[in-house]
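Cast an eye over this sequence plus tokens and walk me through the fold:

***
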Amino acid sequence: MTSPPPPSAEYFDEWYANMAVSPAHADVATRTLGLPPELESTSLLSWDGIADVVRALGVGPGDVLVDLACGRGGYGLEVARRTGARLIGVDFSAVAIERARQRAGGTAEFRVGDLAATGLPDAAADAVMCVDAMQFADPYSDGLRECRRILAPGGRLLLTGWQALDLADESLPVRLRRDIASELTAAGFADVDVSHQPAWRAAERAHWEAAVALDPGDDPALQSLHAEGQRVLPVIDRAARMLARATAPVSS
């Protein structure tokens, strides 16, 4: 199976707009991922997963944290709240960025940018997090190189996502058949560590089971969620839930 082209900014603009008027969509994440409704999740990281991310990032008050592909800002704002880091969120959906700015109320910076072209200066960040989105970088290596460019020497990169258990499994999209550790090493990162997160997978499974069980009616956000659940559940056990950590080298 080959990967289709990554969804466009226009696609995500419509996706976020539909979610904004669908309380039932938010309820699925609240129930299955353990997230508070005000977090406005647009991904599959659970409440316990956020705690894992905070520990892995190791940021503190005053550190600059870039949330790449931040969506509506929920995860980044929660991590910043827990750590005191100064948050900069980047996403290519103007609709998502506008909502993130509204929610932040001036406590964080949000800007339109791409996974491979953030518009941020070199070495601008003490840490970069990208939740469940780096696989959409086209090509993937450009997204990793952009992360390395904006990280200060010694800064930490943290990615969450998926990796096929069998990298030759053609039933999965190409974007899930990458060796994430090898990609990070090839991009020049040090201290690379990629680990499976089975507890995250359990929450994700509950999320998609709830999505498949619901009646989407004429709600576009629920229709999209229901359809994605139908695609994902049959192959969910063929890819592991991953947390990847790496460090920008102190010297080139």
